[in-house]
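Hello forum,

I keep getting stuck at the same step: I have a sequence, I want structure tokens, and every attempt I make locally crashes halfway through. Rather than fight my setup again tonight, could one of you with a working pipeline run this one for me? It's a single chain of 148 residues.
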Amino acid sequence: MMSATSLLVMNGPNLSRLGKREPEVYGSLTLDEINRGIAVAFPEVSFEFFQSEHEGALIEKLFEIEGRGGFSGVVLNAGALTHYSIALRDAISAVTMPVVEVHLSNVHKREEFRHKSVISAVCIGVIAGFGVESYHLGVRALLGRGNR
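Reply #2:
Ran it on my machine without issues. Output:
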């Protein structure tokens, strides 16, 4: 049975290291564990999960899923690309799907360079600082858009 809603959950550089990298900041769950938790929490949604260390691969994935059609939106943790990738910003701006920017940590309580996001202005919203729940809130935000 085909789900009525399909979402892409996309993660950028270094998020493949979750569970190992700075667990006091990012938590102890791996990215696979986070993805499984999202799928379990929202069984009515068909998810595609994607992670890359490479900016171009993230951009290509956005364009690919838009070209395929059938996706209702994207939950995006761009990692460090959040702070400097004009190319990713332009790609988000170029697609018609809504994108929610999410972060595990509260970036505004961290180093100054993390306070600026170049992608926020082209996303429908930003969720940060709630750990794994940031992803769940991002999914809920996209699902709620159908009620507006």
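The two ends are 26 Å apart (CA to CA). If your local run keeps crashing, start a new thread with the error log.
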